[in-house]
């Protein structure tokens, strides 16, 4: 069963308008992985994801992550 991975971002108040247009949780990403192994690779090894995370250093105030499998409680 796929795993849905949701990430919400809140930028620091000191982040310039050029860096982000709105405050609060203004950006979200939703990804779907076919297995726990795929999700683990994405989080820990995927070069594009790791570079993206590094690019956010210093401008993020808050991040929320929610992973779930549809139909499971």
Characterize the structure shown.
Helices cover 25% and strands 37% of the residues. The chain is built from 2 helices and 3 strands. It has helices at residues 36-44, 47-55; strands at residues 3-11, 25-33, 60-68. It is globular and about 40 Å long. The mean pLDDT is 86.
Features:
alpha+beta; three-stranded antiparallel β-sheet; 2 helices; Dimeric_a/b-barrel; HS1/DABB1-like; 73 residues
Summarize the structure.
This protein has 73 residues and is an alpha+beta fold.
- Count of extended strands: 3
Give the strand order of the largest sheet, numbering strands 1, 2, ... along the chain.
Answer: 2-1-3
Task: Tell me, briefly, the overall form.
Answer: globular
Structural class: alpha+beta
Distance N to C terminus = 13 Å
Average pLDDT: 86
Query: Major β-sheet, in short?
Result: 3 strands, antiparallel
SSE sequence, one letter per element: EEHHE
Uncertain segments: none
Rg over CA atoms, rounded to whole Å, is 14 Å
Q: In what range is the share of β-strand residues? A: 35-45%
- Tell me roughly what share of residues is in helical segments: 10-25%
Number of helices: 2
List the helices and strands and how they pair.
Layout: E1 3-11, E2 25-33, H1 36-44, H2 47-55, E3 60-68
Antiparallel strand pairs: 1-2, 1-3
Pfam family, one: Dabb
Protein name: Stress-response A/B barrel domain-containing protein
InterPro entries: Dabb (IPR013097), Dimeric_a/b-barrel (IPR011008), HS1/DABB1-like (IPR044662)
